[in-house]
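Entry:
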Amino acid sequence: MKVTVIAGGELTPELVDRWRRIQESTTELASPYFCPDFTQAVAAVRRDVFVGVMENSGVAVGFFPFQRGRMGVGKPVGGAVSDFHGVIALPEVSWDVPRLLRACGLATFEFTHLLECQQPFRPYHAAAAESHYMDLSEGFDGYAARLREVGSHLLKDVRAKRRKLQQLGELRVVPHTGDTGVLRALLAWKSSQYQRSGLVNVFSFDWAVALLERIHATQHEHFAGMLSALYVNDELVAAHMGMRSRRVWNWWFPRHDERFAKMSPGILLRVCAAESAEGLGIRRIDLGLGNESTYKPRLATGSIPLAEGRVELRSLATAARRLRRDAEAWVRRSPLLTIARVPGRLLTRMERRRRFR
C-alpha cells in the first residue's frame, strides 16, 4: 500500500468525494468527526493538519487525518475537542499502524477517543471507555419506549421541568439557528463554566472559536453545524453547538443560563432535539463520554466502545519522552511527592492546556 501525505487544506474534490463515499458506506464511521468536512474545517484554522492518503493500485482506499507536532508527535484532528477518531477506510482494507505512522512522518500517535473496533490499533490500547448515544432509528417514540423498558423515569421528569418553564412564558425550541448572537452567548456561558470548575477554557484558544464559527456557517446535506436554542418567550435559556453528518448528530458544547439551572433546561433541550431528529433525517444523537454522575447514561439507549492509548515507534524523541514519564512516575511514588506537589499541579495545568494547542 502506498501512503501519500498532503496538507488538510489541499484535499482535491476527487479525494473528498472518495472519502465521503467510504465514510457514508461504513456504519462505524457515521459520526460527523469522520466526514472530510471536519478535517477541512480544522485545517482552515490550524497549520498542523495533514492527511495520509492510502492507495492501492492508484486508487484511494483509506484516509488517516492527523495533527503533527514537534519531534513527530501526532494526535487526532481537533485534538482535545475530538470525540471520535480513527482511520477512514473500508472494512476489507488491510493496513499496518507502524508503517502508516512512518509514512506520515510520525514517531508517536496519542489517541483518547479511538474506535475500539479498529483492529490494527488493538495492541496499543491502554484504557477503554464508552461513548453514549440516543438511538433514534425507530423515531422518538421508539427511543421513549426503550427508556421505559429499562424503568427510566427521565422523560416524565423532563415533562415536569417543561411545565415549570412554561409557567414563565411561551417555550420555543429551534433545532438550528443561524443567529451568531446565540453562538456568542453560548461561548460566554461555557467560558464561565470552565473558569468556575478550574478546567481549561477551550475558548481561550482562537483556533477553537474560529472552528466553531466555521462549522456553524457550514450547511450541507452531508455535513452541517447545528446551533440549537431554547427560548422562554424571546429570552435565550439554553443553547448547544454541535454538528451533524447525514444520519448522526453530535452533541458537543451545551450550556444554559444559570438563572434557570434548577429547571434543567440543558436536558430539556436534548430531549427536544431528539423529538425533532426524525424530521431532520437523524437516526442517532451522540452524547460522548460520561460516568453515572452525568446526565449522559440517563439519556442513552446505546454506547460505542472507544479506546485510549499511544503508539510509539523507536526514535530518540520517543525515548526522551519515555524517560520523562518514568521520572514523573518515580516522583509520585517517592518522598519527594510532597515537595513536588505545588509545581506538579502547575505542570498538570500546563499539560492540560498543551492538549488544546
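Confidence is low (pLDDT under 50) at residues 325-331.
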